[in-house]
Amino acid sequence: MTIRSLVLAAALLASGIAQAHEPRKGPNGGTLVDAGSHHVELVAAGSEVKVFVSDAADAPLPSDGFKGMAILLIDGKPTRVPLAPAGAFLSGPLATPSEGAMKGAVQLTGPDGKTSQAKFN
């Protein structure tokens, strides 16, 4: 293998790694980001925030056994929203109804006790 081939391979690998962490549109209309070994999608729907968790291959995971806290920027102020399992997602109440993209972070604890964090800008 030549030096040129090695440099090209390293550049392609680095670009793939960088793209793996880019926020993207999720299947439920929210923003999907990486959080440890999971993918997390944040969806604001009126007076409720929904958090969908999937595995590294984007296969949905049941919310049973997960717990979490969303810390969201609403009207310029950080707001803590406790998240509880609600079937296919985790859910929490929003005091101020919101729609669309949100800024903040979601802290999750999985059924195995491992924690992860997803940041939404």
UniProtKB/TrEMBL annotation:
The keyword Signal applies. Residues 1-20 form the signal peptide. Keywords: Signal. It comes from the Bacteria. This is Uncharacterized protein. It comes from Aureimonas glaciei.
